Amino acid sequence: MYKYKKITANDLKTKGISVVAEEVAQYGEAVVTVRGKGKYVIIPVERYNELREYELLAALEESRKAIEEGDYVIESVKDHIKRITRD
User: Are residues 10 and 38 in the same domain?
Assistant: First the structure.
């Protein structure tokens, strides 16, 4: 299980980025809570970029699968807009 430090919005307001830097250095991420509930996750930009890459790879795989299964449409931009905006 991932360990992370919960940082209250008040801690963030009073202590600033230093509290974030300390917790991310120790745990790899931090969660900012507002009124006791997790609201934001703070991670290093390198980790964020990794997650975005995984997301894009998953989308690419999904697209490849759709092509293999013939689940796609070839059409003009005009026809595409018309098709996706139908009620």
Answer: yes
Q: Report the alpha-carbon distance of residue 64 to residue 67 in Å, rounded.
A: 5
79 burial (CB, 10 Å; 0-12 / 13-18 / 19+) is exposed
29 pLDDT exceeds 70? yes
pTM of structure: 0.66
Long-range contacts (CB closer than 8 Å, 24 or more residues apart) made by 73-76: none
C-alpha span between 69 and 4 (Å, rounded): 42
Task: Determine the average pLDDT of the residues in 45-71.
Answer: 97
Q: Can you tell me whether residue 28 is helix, strand or coil?
A: coil
CATH number at residue 37: 3.40.1620.10
Per-residue model confidence (pLDDT) at position 6? 84
Domain range for 80? 52-84
Count the domains in the chain: 2
